[in-house]
Amino acid sequence: MTTWLITGCSSGLGRALAQCLLEDGQNVVMSARDPSTLSDLAERFPNAAVSALDVTNKKEVAETVRHALERFGGIDVLVNNAGYGYRAAVEEADDEDVKALLATNFFGPVFMIKAVLPGMRAQRRGTIINVSSIAGRFAAPGSGFYSASKFALEGMSNALLKEVGPLGIRVMVVEPGAFRTDFTGRSLHQSSVAIADYADTAGRRRKENDQTHGTQPGDPVRAARAIVEVVNRDKMPFRLLLGSDAVRLVSAEMEIQRQELDDWKNISLGTDFDAAEREF
């Protein structure tokens, strides 16, 4: 039996993952800003614990980790799932909105990781899963700051993988495509300002113009089962794409990046001190 600590369990992937694990008999510490949203699961499963948690609050982070240790004796898997979307052209975005977005989507996971690592290092095992997005691979118009939060999360995770891997701790980034959750509904924020010049780019993706909510191809229950399956394997990837749209879009982005690298390779190679002596 393993113990999982999951942030952002009130709905969507976090809740689906918690329920999947609880039904499988695993210990789960479910956290959410409003813990009452988890009372039904806590009542059904004796292997469930609930913690009130705003991941931007270091005191609540420490209390949640302490609660997990007191209840179950350790933490085997941390899932940093809490987060939300934000849409605005770069020029439209409010500075305070951007700070709040980064506080939740990037610094929140950092706080959680730093809180669980002492215990994982002591036991020389553990798994850290950071839920990113396909927006951690490329940025769409209107999602520049959301992508920035996920690019930062993935960059940090890549270094973390190399730092804690020798200590027996695994790290994985999960990159979902569009899933049928509240992400483009309740969990999607946007700027209060809309500049007319961006109507045909970022403007097309504002909430009032987005018709995708409730029609996304991804099933959060299947996504939860996929994550559990991968974690239970001896070997797991650093990046795990979820959804057919994720595979399609990221594959296309990788082709674009590869082509650009090839197109400009000679310029790139010509910047070394001894470049003049080489034949490209």
Question: What is the CATH superfamily label of the largest domain?
Answer: NAD(P)-binding Rossmann-like Domain
What distance lies between the first and last C-alpha atoms, to the nearest angstrom? 57 Å
Largest sheet: 7 strands, parallel
Element-by-element helix/strand order: EHEHEHEEHEHEEHEHH
Structural domain count = 2
Measured by DSSP, the beta-strand proportion falls in 15-25%
**What share of residues is helical?**
40-55%
CATH level-two architecture of the largest domain? 3-Layer(aba) Sandwich
Biggest β-sheet: strands ordered side by side in the sheet: 3-2-1-4-6-7-9
User: SS-based structural class?
Assistant: alpha/beta
Describe this structure in words.
The protein is of the alpha/beta class and 280 residues long. It is built from eight helices and nine strands. The chain has helices at 12-23, 39-44, 58-72, 95-123, 144-164, 220-231, 244-263, 265-269, and strands at 3-6, 27-32, 48-52, 77-80, 85-87, 126-131, 169-176, 188-190, 239-242. A seven-stranded parallel sheet has the order 3-2-1-4-6-7-9, with helices on both faces. Helix 2 links the parallel strand 2 and strand 3 (48-52). It is globular, with a radius of gyration of 20 Å. The model has no long low-confidence stretch (mean pLDDT 93).
Would you summarize the structure shown here?
The chain has 280 residues and is α/β, with parallel strands linked by helices.
Task: Set down the secondary structure blueprint.
Elements: E1 3-6, H1 12-23, E2 27-32, H2 39-44, E3 48-52, H3 58-72, E4 77-80, E5 85-87, H4 95-123, E6 126-131, H5 144-164, E7 169-176, E8 188-190, H6 220-231, E9 239-242, H7 244-263, H8 265-269
